[in-house]
TrEMBL record:
Family of the protein in this entry: Belongs to the DDAH family.
Organism listed in the record: Saccharopolyspora gloriosae
SUPFAM superfamilies the UniProt entry points to: Pentein
Active-site residue list: 184, 281
Record lineage: Bacteria, Bacillati, Actinomycetota, Actinomycetes, Pseudonocardiales
UniProt-recorded name of the protein: N-dimethylarginine dimethylaminohydrolase
Length: 288
């Protein structure tokens, strides 16, 4: 599909009727070694205590929420010395059976990429590309079903967007992030519904003026989040097309979603947020 064709699809009227969930395949990694030992985003403060038991409980509740909704969850074993490995979304982008691995900007996270590459190989994936450019996977890549929305500005190199297009064989739309609090695309935007008429939610102030105009043209009916929803990482949500898993505090966003026929499901990620993560950060999706 060309970008032009995908753009035309997204100008068509939304589908009528009730929202329909689709079963998803997720990959997660438990926060057994979770800690805030360094600072690589504005959310992290090594002087603020972290409770690993609470982080584990919140992670289990998130995983059980997905399973209760009927989704499959695969678990990659946690590794000592990698406290941010719980944020599985940053370690791979999978579309149509093809895998683009990750290459982290922060030295402290670099080793995570190989553990996930090995997991993909052990689980039947044969088309695996490890990137030459800095690429923090689904942290900065969001699949709409026709386009790969790609963030840059703080972590992923802009050149990695072209690399993703070659590796995955899908059209890519580049978006520039401008607020360091929203250092990854998945902290400022998420896909509510994939397919011919995709729907997204996003926080406009996290993006450059040009990127805002791109989003307005591609998604004129998008859900627009406010500063309060963004500041609790409310845009770090996970949707199956009907059920939308959100941080507990994202109440305004939840009301907007409910008015559009989605079913918000709140989870507590307060401990994981100490490292700048929420539901989506903990969740890699294996897109068919």
């Amino acid at each position: 599909m060309t970008v032009t064709a995908a753009f035309a699809d997204q100008q068509a009227a939304p589908r009528p009727g009730a929202r329909t969930p689709t079963l998803r395949n997720y990959v997660m990694c438990p926060p057994e070694h979770f800690a805030v030992e360094y600072v690589i985003n504005p959310w992290m403060d090594p002087d603020e205590p972290v409770d690993v038991a609470v982080a584990m409980r919140q992670w289990r509740e998130l995983k059980e929420t997905y399973e209760r909704l009927g989704h499959a969850v695969s678990v990659v074993p946690a590794q000592p010395g990698l406290p941010d490995m719980v944020f599985a979304a940053n370690s791979g982008t999978v579309v149509g059976g093809r895998v683009l691995g990750s290459r982290f900007r922060a030295e402290q996270r670099a080793a995570e990429a190989e553990h996930f590459r090995r997991w993909f190989g052990e689980n039947g994936y044969r088309e695996i590309v490890m990137p030459a450019r800095i690429n923090e996977a689904e942290g900065d890549f969001a699949w709409t079903g026709g386009l790969l929305l790609a963030g840059t500005g703080f972590r992923t190199d802009p050149e990695a967007h072209a690399e993703a297009q070659e590796a995955l064989g899908v059209p890519v739309v580049s978006l520039r992030l401008v607020d360091a609090r929203y250092y990854h695309l998945d902290t400022a935007l998420f896909v509510l519904e994939q397919g011919a008429h995709p729907q997204i939610a996003y926080y406009p102030e996290a993006f450059s003026p040009g990127s805002r105009r791109v989003l307005q043209r591609l998604f004129p009916d998008a859900v627009i989040a406010d500063a309060a929803d963004a500041s609790c990482l409310g845009l770090n949500g996970v949707s199956d097309g009907r059920n939308v898993v959100l941080p507990l505090e994202a109440t305004g966003l939840a009301e907007q979603l409910r008015a559009r026929g989605y079913e918000p499901i709140h989870v507590d990620v307060s401990e994981l947020r100490k490292s700048g993560g929420g539901p989506k950060c903990c969740t890699m999706e294996l897109h068919g």
